[in-house]
């Protein structure tokens, strides 16, 4: 009997703890690797960080003072140690452009990206999963063809083109949605004074402030960029769901459920879908991470004040602390999502080792 | 005895890329409230025959039959909806390999009780009680824990017993048992067989017992169908197995090692192309 007599609940807990330890270790290693990479990028680029701070006309004394203040006179390994130490304390230095701590700026920009990507992913899951399931249950049918073609378009059409066309049609011609930016110009001004930024996310903050007029305006602005990002996410998720589902529907346990007389909805949406969830978690996490990092083009087109815009602007201004700080945040988000999907995976798959 | 199941000229064809494959080719038999054995080598069509009765052959498989009648119901005519109503409480099938036939991400308990909850509309506690009873009936000693286990935590023999319990819960009139005891040790096997036996004798259940263990089937069943390449090549009354006339059946019998006998390498049945045509 493989269900042993010693309580296997306990051993499962111990197992989970051991796994948890492993996750923390690999997390630390990945994070260190990430910092190592950004640190060396910072040293390799042909931009003198001291010059960037003091300007071209500084005296040698000023130059040396700043160099010392930045710790650049120290040996490399020590510099790296300081860099890691600071990073762990949320200190990525000062932005060259604004003289503000990079971390404060990221804290301002990141929520906008998070909000956009989250909405897009929710849309991608809510539409993509059922579409994939339905397509898989009727392979070759009209609805399967439609899902396939709509998905294919989401794959192959460049986001910036979709964004421009979307703006032209829905904003320019039809006037159904708000234009670029998070709010109309009038509200944008009001926001500075009348809105307490609890989260930095515009929909949440307007709702929390009870400013439903602003909320509606923000919604009309986010719907198009979120829809376009969500479309690409939906294309990926529906395609993967379809193929996972096809695979599950061919398994023996599906026949067992039918032998028991289970209705078809239950066979598909409970028996099969529970199994589809296992690989799907990774797919959704990947797509989410991709949106959190890769929505630069969308943010640019829609003048969305998010991390993508922030890093791009910093890059063009040769603002290395900002670029590297942003990169670290993106990396951390990616690691975090990976970890989250790992945990969820263990939760839904009892066989996960 | 009135027939519970009548099958006449059952054919199952799989349309594959390399052309149609006939897995079952004109099988006919009748079943009363008795124990009917089906034996045959691997790939002879036993499972496909059993599944056809439930109309659970997936595309690209096709079922054709001159007649398939269960308890006066024409299985070839009724709608999918009516068919679904028969599956479970009227006709059930113990699936061959519990390792693949149980849902890997659902607890055993949930799989045992879902029929009771959904079809019979029982409350959670009542359904659970019945499921535990069913597990106890198949000699599972710690049913509470098995209820909480996932299939991969069960041994092969436990999985088989869970499968049997699951299919017996709705009290079917016809049970198709596909290799139900192959992973059980002798004492548990005897126990499980006596449960099935009791259901046939006392409740008048019909039983189709699929196995490739000819001796077991001969001991346990009333009649035995011998299948080869999608056909029934011989039907024998269980007691008269030794008098089986067909060379394939004799071959199967000779394959079986006898206690004390020489463990001669499996003779590799002499096949005659004519049997498949028959
Ligand atoms: N999906 C399919 N496509 C093509 N051929 C199939 C398919 N499913 C089954 N078959 C064929 O049907 C034949 C009968 O299969 P079946 O599973 O009924 O054999 P079996 O007698 O139950 O064998 P075993 O003792 O190994 O369980 C096999 O030869 C197999 O190749
Ligand atoms: Mg079989």
Automatic annotation (TrEMBL), chain A:
Coiled coil location: none
Single GO term (MF): dipeptide transmembrane transporter activity
SUPFAM superfamilies: MetI-like
Cross-referenced Pfam families: BPD_transp_1, BPD_transp_1_N
CDD domains: TM_PBP2
Intracellular or extracellular location(s): Cell membrane
GO cellular component labels: plasma membrane
Bilayer-spanning residue ranges: 21-41, 116-137, 149-174, 218-237, 268-291, 322-345
N-terminal signal peptide: none
Assigned keywords, A-Z: Cell membrane, Membrane, Transmembrane, Transmembrane helix, Transport
Membrane topology annotation: Multi-pass membrane protein
Domain ABC transmembrane type-1: 110-341
Similarity comment text for this entry: Belongs to the binding-protein-dependent transport system permease family.
Protein name as annotated: ABC transporter permease
From TrEMBL, chain B:
Entry keyword set: ATP-binding, Cell membrane, Membrane, Nucleotide-binding, Transport
Subcellular compartments: Cell inner membrane
Matching SUPFAM superfamilies: P-loop containing nucleoside triphosphate hydrolases (SSF52540)
Family from the record: Belongs to the ABC transporter superfamily.
Protein name (database record): ABC transporter ATP-binding protein
Gene Ontology BP, a term: transmembrane transport
Hydrolase as UniProt keyword: no
Ranges in a coiled coil: none
A GO cellular-component term linked to this record: plasma membrane
Membrane topology designation: Peripheral membrane protein
GO function term, MF aspect, one: ATP binding
Domain ABC transporter residues, every copy: 7-254
Main location: membrane
PANTHER family for the chain: DIPEPTIDE TRANSPORT ATP-BINDING PROTEIN DPPD (PTHR43297:SF2), OLIGOPEPTIDE TRANSPORT ATP-BINDING PROTEIN APPD (PTHR43297)
Record Pfam families: ABC_tran
